[in-house]
Input
Amino acid sequence: MEQNPVIQIEELSKVYTVNEREAGLVAAMRSLVKRKTRDVNAVDAISFSVGEGEIVGFLGPNGAGKTTTLKMLSGLLHPTGGSATVLGFRPWERNRDYLRRMTLVMGQRNQLVWDIPVIDTFELNRAVYRIPEEQYRPVVEELTELLELEPLLRKPTRNLSLGERMKCEIAAALLHRPSVLFLDEPTIGLDVTMQRRIRRFITDYNQRTGATVILTSHYMADVEALCKRVIVIHHGKLLYDGELTGLADRFAPFKTVEVKLQNGLDGRPLAQYGELMAHSEGRITLRIPKVDTAAVTGRLLADLDVADLTVQDPPIEDVIEHVFSQSPSPLDAPDPQKIQSE
Amino acid sequence: MYYFRLFATYVRVGILGELEYRANFWINIIQSALDLCVALGGIAVVFSHTDTLGGWRQEELLALIGVYFLIGGLIRTLIRPSMIQFMEDVRQGTLDFKLTKPADSQVLVSIQRIEIWRLVDVLISLPVLGIAFLRLGASLGPIESAVFAVTLLSGALIIYSFWLMLSTCAFWFVKVENIQVIFMSMWPAGRWPVNIYPTWLRAVLTFLVPVAFATTVPASAVSGRITGATLIGTVALAAAMLLVSRWFWRVGIRFYSGASA
Output
């Protein structure tokens, strides 16, 4: 789709062999000698490509295979099948020239050294990445300003709050000016203000450097603010790859209709119109199948004393939840839209 | 050159970091001084009853204690902290950050943590070795000095490789912190020449946990007690263990990334 994709993945798969142990002492003893194993398809033949400078949201519930995919792309895991190239490199060969141009941030894990001041961890990374002094100074100054790190740099990591630590984590990961960023839940556990600040920073970095970003997050606000394009995976399979706005069209076969009534309900049942989502003081929210929207709104207007009526796409959280609860059924039916986008 | 500079940065940051814990400095001084007193006291007791111990004279044993403290200091300063950190990294998944760095992972892991106060052991070892050398006097010529240096370096490399191999097991078993306890419990046996121990224990200290190569062998070099075969054997073993541990490390990394499965 792009002329020069930075990341290209074809039929990428990862099968884990996990040990299975039955409950109980005897079974535990038996497993010491012979272990039962089971194959788990963590990532199942997914294909996509990402163009230079894109920010792509990578969505899926816990255990969907997001982190496994990011680990393969950052060279930590060998795939069981398929191929991937990032910046022209095969990630798991761990070519130094590749590693120097990418970075991995994991919201749940720390790379900052616990006991030493943040600036000293930066110093270690400077040495590891062989960043020349004349390049290092301005980068640190810039990151310090953008992320407001000034008061934090001299503190040991262990004295920082979660949000402060995450800001420093991100700065430490960007000292070498990577052109590909893999951000695995960079805002996890942060308060709304801090989430917003980090989002703004990621947009900023992307615009200034033209870096390509793949981001996973459970916060839809992150995805909505950052990503025009999303890739949804579930049970290791690719469910959707396209515009964020198209997600609702594709997966949510319903609309949300909000009605404000002049005289309340007068005890009339609402079930005949659609699924009642919320109801408070003359304001009701209904979920209505997309195909019936026109008909039902017509009936609503005819039957009730409507003061106001709005028809909306459901919030993105609901769509995502809907996708994950009904899948993998969307895959079973051949989907013209998916074939088109490929 | 790159790795040398990297190491220097780690040392510098290690010093800065540890300056935060000044109490550690005093605790280490007291601990090391006590260790030294026990070691020297042991010699004094032994030599109040006899002139030689397993053929070793007093000044030779003094040199042995110097070597024991020197290598022990190295283990406690660099090898043990780095390897413990490595095992912790495997357990917590933070090893991923080391593997995504454009540098040799084995080197990064091996120099990652420096407990600078433990250098007290190394500092203590220097005057002990100095006194031993003075008292050995004429018997310590340039050849003996060179052999001593070579065996000391070999011993250090053998110990490092041994630790690395033990730690590498963390890739498969994850919880192997206790492995280092095995080594640290055997280590004090290196305070005495291994030939005073019964055969089975000598075999253990030589081949199972290579304490002998790091202590007895270099110390036996200062008085020319060492045989040519031992010298060659020690150097060969150091080279072999360095290569094998390197190979084993790579196998571990391949296993970790699922390439071997």
